[in-house]
Write a structure and sequence with these properties.
about 270 residues, alpha/beta, Rossmann fold, eight-stranded mixed sheet, about 30% helix
Length: about 270
């Protein structure tokens, strides 16, 4: 696997391309089917269309769950979205926190930040702002967020423990996170682990579920709970490309799952 900086550059370039392609798609579904590499990243996403605050122009089909569903956002809360993309989860959170609340989106891709800001202006949100930064180092003040949400982003971080430490730092005592991400049950086949587009799709960087949850606990979070778990079925045409279809489908083979995790920062 490449170095941490090489991985970050690969992910940044990939998502910049998705943001640019989505503009050219003129309102079609997200990044437009294959995002230029034959991989449809929306295969892991869930349906947002009935959720209050949903904005189709901000949904690029890059998530793997509905993190705001378990975020318990209250009116007046400050919410931070780690890896905010085009702003989809931010706008949903903004509806829940209301005019007296605040939503801050963090993303390391400048093209995504620009797209999110344009969406916020178009949708006339006054309580949402977007900042360029990495989830391992947001440059936000500590103890400012009541809630942190994230949708299929922590697996893009080469140092996931650092990302969770940063989340703990910016949360107020007693605040909580609600994130959706990809985990595995078993070890992924080597060809998938080496595939750049599979890393950008949150698969190659996925940890086994218990290892993932262990990092959350070891960071200092409490009440770590899996609120939802959903199996992800990779398309046969994708697994055939890497000659791993039989290995993934055989009895006892690796399972790929979307999980939504809730955890709280201790009060003391």
């Amino acid at each position: 696997m490449e170095s941490a900086e090489e991985i970050k550059k690969m992910v940044r370039d990939k998502y910049a391309g998705i943001a640019i392609q989505s503009e050219k798609a003129s309102g079609s579904c997200g990044c437009g089917c294959d995002c230029g590499d034959g991989v449809d990243y929306s295969i892991m996403s869930e349906d947002y269309s009935q959720i209050k605050g949903y904005a189709p122009e901000a949904d690029l089909g890059l998530g793997c769950g509905l993190p705001t569903q378990y975020a318990f956002i209250r009116p007046g809360d400050t919410v931070v979205d780690m890896g905010s993309g085009a702003g989809n989860d931010c706008f949903i959170a903004a509806k829940e926190t209301g005019e007296n609340g605040k939503v801050i989106g963090i993303d390391m891709t400048d093209a995504m930040i620009q797209k999110a800001r344009l969406n916020a202006e178009k949708l006339k949100y006054k309580n949402v702002e977007f900042h360029l930064g990495e989830i391992e180092n947001t440059s936000l003040d500590g103890n400012i967020a009541d809630v942190v949400v994230s949708n299929c982003v922590f697996n893009l971080a080469p140092d996931k423990a650092a990302a969770f430490r940063e989340t703990l730092r910016i949360l107020r005592p007693g605040g909580h996170l609600s994130i959706s991400d990809i985990v595995t049950d078993g070890i992924l086949p080597e060809p998938l682990l080496k595939a750049a587009e599979m890393y950008a799709g949150c698969v190659a960087g996925a940890l086994q579920e218990e290892d993932y949850l262990a990092i959350v606990r070891e960071t200092g979070f409490e009440n770590v709970t899996v609120m939802k778990k959903r199996k992800i079925q990779l398309p046969v045409e994708l697994t055939d490309r890497y000659s791993v279809t039989e290995e993934l489908n055989k009895a006892g083979g690796t399972g790929i799952y979307s999980i939504s995790v809730f955890a709280r920062k201790p009060n003391n």
